């Protein structure tokens, strides 16, 4: 297997970024100046996830939960997944457990779980409603959640039963501030 040496450069990152995601930098990057061996694709993927999470780039067309799930509602159907921040914190996801189509969900209730090489986490529904579709790709390729958590890595689609529940969720700016506050 080809391996590359990656020099950890956390010391050169602006302090605002280091302060926003300090544990992420320590875990992914290691001590500043250290050489770390990893596969080229792993280096690329980790760097991309690190930058996405550290930059706080969360799509503005969604609503977010403090537990790091998002929902994008179009024509009464909510597409649900976990944020890039959550995916980065979990690390390489190896298994995703999703509900059956037709399942009834309540806002804030667990609907599934994700397992990574280092942790497992429940996933919570940002809205109440009926599951009308699940992302079947995730059963064969759960890493899609890491690769593209806000698009191809979506988890379920829900026919929203109470659109008023969206008012209690955060917009992208508020979620970005929430993520930053978790690391202080």
CATH superfamily of the largest domain: RNA polymerase II/Efflux pump adaptor protein, barrel-sandwich hybrid domain
Oligomer: single chain
Q: Give the domain tally.
A: 2
Spatial extent as radius of gyration: 17 Å
Give the class from helix and strand content and strand pairing: alpha+beta
Terminal Cα span? 39 Å
The rough form would be described as globular
The helix/strand order is: EHHEHEEEHEEEEEHHEH
Write the layout of secondary structure elements.
Blueprint: E1 4-7, H1 15-20, H2 22-29, E2 35-38, H3 40-55, E3 63-64, E4 69-74, E5 77-82, H4 84-90, E6 93-97, E7 104-105, E8 110-116, E9 120-124, E10 129-134, H5 137-140, H6 144-147, E11 156-160, H7 172-182
Antiparallel strand pairs: 1-2, 3-4, 4-5, 5-11, 6-8, 7-10, 8-9, 10-11
Helix pairs in contact: 3-4
Primary descriptors:
single chain; 184 residues; alpha+beta; OB fold (Dihydrolipoamide Acetyltransferase, E2P); six-stranded antiparallel beta sheet; three-stranded antiparallel beta sheet; 7 helices; 28% strand; globular; disordered N terminus
